[in-house]
Amino acid sequence: MENMEKGGTTAKSLGLVVKRDPGAMRKADGLESWLIARGCRVVRKTSDPPNCQHTACIQEPAPPDLDCVVVLGGDGTFLNAVRWLGDQQAPLLGIKFGQVGFLAEASEESLYNAVESILDQPFATLPRMRLRAEVWRKDEKVASEVVLNDVVINKGALARLAHIKTYVNDGFLTDYRADGLIVATPTGSTAYSLAAGGPIIYPTVQGILMTPICPFTLTNRPLIVPDDAVIKIQLAEKSADIILTFDGQVGLPINEQHTIVVRKDPLPVNTIVLPDRDFFDVLKAKLRWSGSRV
What is each CA distance from 75 to 50, 246, 274, in whole angstroms? Predict the structure, then answer.
């Protein structure tokens, strides 16, 4: 059901991305020593703070020969690790040190058992769709980013409603008059889009989710389009204090002179899936639905 793929090798060269938290960093110190004692190579990185300016967020990329990346933190740290990897296809294993942790496969308490399971035997992975967003100003491409969760247009606290003209495959869809618009992957459907009233999409469903944020027109509802759709977005009138963010990690101000083009990226993110972990059990527990195992 989950379209998982079995890995052919075990992990001996690991990346370690750690949340900026004293507890997580202490755990990472112990894990790094434990991995080195087992003959593993470890490349460690501390998670970068989010919301920095797009032009200032150039970081050293991950080395190209990692077998996998272990992430100690919440979903924000996981997204930072995805950004660090770029187009490299090393799979990621999330260990929850944050508040929600939809992307985590294990908790802090089961850290060593989880990591040991990928050292000693081939592991299963789940490919998750990404989106590529390009920002154009007339004929100049001013930004290009790949996201696992979402691309978000959001107005500032004092700005008027954003007037967002939206096209799908060059056909006009609608003018959203709203606080913003979220374009999300199935993975991102449990993030900001969920808080804005969007549906939950199973991770391997091939679709792109468009969720308006507090729309002025109540009939503007979330919409799922095919994964081969190309979405074009423009601000329809003179605008100020509007920000475009990528996975909540980086952002840049935009205005009516910019055009945003969003499409499926050809390369997925591969996440490690541990045995006996079911998406619906995770969903019930995280959202505290009736019958959940908290």
Answer: 12, 14, 17
Query: Per-residue pLDDT tens for 9-32?
Result: 567 899 999 999 999 999 999 999
Tokens of 67: 């077998």
70-81 per-position pLDDT tens digit: 999 999 999 999
What gap in Å lies between CA 169 and CA 230, rounded to an integer?
A: 5
The model carries a pTM of 0.91
276, burial (CB in 10 Å: exposed 0-12, middle 13-18, buried 19+)? exposed
Q: Which of 75, 179, 247, 265 is catalytic?
A: 75
Arithmetic mean of pLDDT, 166-185: 96
- Say how far apart CA 82 and CA 137 lie, in whole Å: 27
Identify whether 75 is a catalytic site residue. Answer: yes
Residue with tokens 């083009």: 261
Which of 3.30.70.100, 2.60.120.810, 2.40.30.60, 2.60.200.30 is the CATH number of 131-264?
A: 2.60.200.30
